[in-house]
Amino acid sequence: MKFIPHDYQKCAVAFIEKNEIACLLLDMGLGKTVITLTALKHLLDNGVVRRILIVGPLRVARDTWPAEIKKWDHLKGLKYSVAVGSTAKRIEAINDKTAQIVIINRENVDWLIKHNSFDYDMVVIDELSSFKSHKSKRFKALMSKRPFVKRIVGLTGTPSSNGLMDLWAEFKVLDMGKRLGRFIGNYREWYFRPDKMNGPIVYSYKPMPFAEKEIYEKISDITISMSALDHLKMPELIINEVEVEMNPHERRKYNDLKDELVLEIPDGVITAANAASLTNKLCQMANGRIYDEDKNIIHIHDRKLDALEDIIESANGQPVLIAYWFKHDLEAISSRFKVREIKTSADIADWNDKKIPVAVIHPASAGHGLNLQSGGNILVWYGLTWSLELYQQTNARLWRQGQTSGTVVIQHIVCKDTVDGNILKALKAKDTTQAALIEAVKAVV
To answer: Which helix (H) or strand (E) holds 397?
Structure first.
């Protein structure tokens, strides 16, 4: 297929070629893979770089990057290998000296660097947000080789899914600390103040009033952002909340656990050891089920199932995609409705062919590189996630260019006066921060 780039794509290609360090914040559907590969081809052809390592999520590394190289006429000459799968297959791929590009999944970065020679003068990180933890093995491994890398590109659509604190590690990988500091402690000291504390222990930090503006200014020279709304004809997006409410008996159970960290059940008690455990258990209760200490499922209510039934009925036969979080959510949904989980390539194909009336998907498996926009336009969040990245990526399975309907409807089933409301509020707050970052470094095409 002949690649005829849009103006914004030409701009992004030129940005990668011009800058030895480049961070591209590109919305879903803007073609970040073909943009990057086009720039890589130019750099290889002109002798600027010799060998390139591409790091990405497993499915994207295995399927998306190779498929894009094969798809476009101007990339046909690129020689590549895919270091995914068994150890033997990975070793064979990285030892292929004819390969100008080696593609590997991010889980194997630590293995690659510890057990193999590193002869790459350029690195591309697809989904830079997966390097947001400075304590992770992949971050430490890549940082050990970063001084030997001549050029680096970071690609993502969700750079600060958990707030500004994430940006330090992501940009440390890119510029080795030049813009946001070499040490996380200094970054915290400069831009944050302690928020939630227990004595000397700090659980969370709050950005200082000037932090956002100053951080964005510091990274703006190596960062551009592009929004799908600015460059593509996107379908209309309608977001709704369907509220359900527990009865007084169910509410007492919820409040007992929230206030006392203990819930009495016929066969014993359920306890929450800490704040994280409590939040997790309250999320389960809001959805209608909870695990006891032995992982048995305790039934609390069916309020969300009833609401889901109404949504499916009102869809009048249109395909409905349901995002669930806990395994007992899936069991509950499956017990009332005939559903099929989207997991395999065959599932994806059948959904896009409109052969699945009601499908379920877990946000962790609904991430990067999964196109479901041809199969339907209704997404229901049965159980919410705290992760903005997973939330946005799941929504983007349907709300993207190529959506066959003019409108995408995203429904959130929210249990009134529970942790559900806190999660939605947190997601909106994180999105505000991220939207500010993207706006601050938006490319003018």
So the answer is: none
CA 320 to mean position of chain CA atoms: 22
The answer to the question of residue 426 being in a domain is: no
Bin 379: left if φ > 0, else alpha if -120 < ψ < 50, else beta: beta
* Domains of the chain: total: 2
Report the C-alpha gap between 308 and 301 in whole angstroms: 13
248 and 206 share a domain? no
- Per DSSP, the three-state class of 298 is strand
Asked if residue 444 has pLDDT above 60, the reply is no
Please spell the DSSP secondary structure of 313-345, one letter per residue.
HHTTT--EEEE--SHHHHHHHHHHS--EE--SH
pLDDT in tens, 181-239: 999 999 999 999 988 778 788 778 889 999 999 999 999 999 998 876 677 777 888 89
- Single-letter residue type at 175: D
* Main-chain phi, psi angles of 182, to 5 degrees: -80, -20
**Cα separation, 85 vs 325, whole angstroms:** 27
**Residue 261 pLDDT grade (very low, low, confident, very high; cuts 50, 70, 90):** confident
Radius of gyration of the chain (CA): 23
Residues 223 and 247 in one domain: no
Alpha-carbon distance of 432 to 427, in angstroms, equals 9
Amino acid at position 250, single letter: E
Burial class for 391, CB neighbours closer than 10 Å (0-12, 13-18, 19+)? buried
Q: N- to C-terminal Cα distance for the chain?
A: 25
How far is Cα of residue 400 from the mean position of the Cα atoms in its chain?
15
Angle between helices 275-287 and 248-260 (to 10 degrees): 170
Whether 312 has a pLDDT exceeding 80, the answer reads: yes
CA atoms within 13 A on the CB side of 205: 18
Q: Is 219 exposed, middle or buried (0-12, 13-18, 19+ CB in 10 A)?
A: buried
Alpha-carbon distances, residue 184 vs 79, 170, 237 (angstroms): 38, 11, 38
Name the pairing type of β-strands 378-381 and 205-207: unpaired
| Distance of alpha carbon 246 from alpha carbon 303, whole angstroms | 7
Looking at the structure, do residues 255 and 193 belong to the same domain, yes or no? no
Angle 111-114-116 from CA coordinates, rounded to 5°: 85
